[in-house]
UniProtKB/TrEMBL annotation:
MF terms (GO), sorted A to Z: structural constituent of ribosome
Record-level GO BP terms: translation
Organism: Metallosphaera tengchongensis
Gene: rps24e
Record key words, sorted: Ribonucleoprotein, Ribosomal protein
UniProt similarity note: Belongs to the eukaryotic ribosomal protein eS24 family.
HAMAP family to which the protein is assigned, alphabetical: Ribosomal_eS24
Name this polypeptide is given: Small ribosomal subunit protein eS24
GO cellular component: ribonucleoprotein complex; ribosome
Keyword Lipoprotein in annotation: no
């Protein structure tokens, strides 16, 4: 890649595509991005998933955010994502808690009865 490609993550954050590696053995793309969010907080995993899936033309539920690392006070984050070709492969290789972490839970914020 001669020039880094820009991806709009949210209203206050943009990302630069750092690297996309095709892992043909597993059937996924391993994506590294740098997110610039100067003056605002780290973007949510949901926003990052949505931006990468739109950029790569894949389904949002086949994208897993492995990690987002932000240095204190820097306003720049590094993220590692895996983009799968099918759901079965994703469920075989990714931990369930990471698959669930990147989705909006229904009834989030409601008190549990019990």
């Amino acid at each position: 890649m001669s020039q880094a490609q820009q991806i709009k993550v949210s209203e206050k954050a943009e990302a630069l595509l750092d690297n996309v590696a095709e892992n043909k053995v597993i059937g996924r793309k391993e994506v590294k991005i740098k997110i610039y969010h100067i003056g605002s907080g780290t973007p949510s995993r949901v926003d990052v998933k949505k931006a990468i899936s739109n950029f790569l033309g894949s389904k949002e539920d086949l994208v897993v955010v492995r990690k987002i690392f932000t240095s204190y006070g820097a306003g720049i984050s590094e993220a590692v994502l895996h983009v799968y070709s099918d759901k079965e492969t994703m469920e075989r290789f990714e931990p369930i808690h990471l698959i669930k972490r990147g989705t909006k839970a229904e009834g989030a914020g409601e008190a549990k009865n019990g």
